[in-house]
Write a structure and sequence with these properties.
single chain, mainly alpha
Length: 221
Amino acid sequence: MEPKGLLFLKLLLIHRITNGLERLLVFFVALGPTGLFAVALLDSAFVPLPSSADALMILLTIAHPRMMIVYALLATVGSTIGCVILYYISRRAGRRALNKFSPAKQKRVKELIDRYDVLSVLVASLMPPPFPFKLFVVTAGVFRFSVTRFTIAIVAGRIFRFLLEGYFAIRYGAQAKLVLARYYPWIGLGLAVVIITFFVMRNLMKGKPKPAVKESLESGD
């Protein structure tokens, strides 16, 4: 067991960090759309701010419904830039970037990326916290996954997610966050199943041998 003094210092540090992040979020909320962009970027790249971009997206959309698409685009661009930054940091750091993740999770995510390629990143970008999305980003960078395909997957997944949040905010107002918390995991999972099923079916169709061309019995053909 840890000494009580050390445990107290850790708890105090966590409390101060939490308070600092809360003040940071309040500051970004005051900035409106610019704050949404910044929060989405920071959360995807450096600073862990779980669900903060989602909450701010909903809050801004409730206040200004006609700006919903603009907010979704800003959040998508911010999140994508943040993910690309983390991708390049991980690419430069190499396997050291994976040290904070368990070997079992590292292996599983690597297998998914190897098997499903860009679709694994797309599906991961759709899933809500606490899904380990950043592990997919870091793994893609460490193993030098195509940055073009990576970026396309992030954009597709994030724009769907933020547009859906905007739609729920317009329809359900202040209750949108509760509705999303209840149903979005199932929506994301259902969409993931559809994407993977399509991918598998496409591969099966490609793998079917083409029927041999019948030789003509008529001369001159």
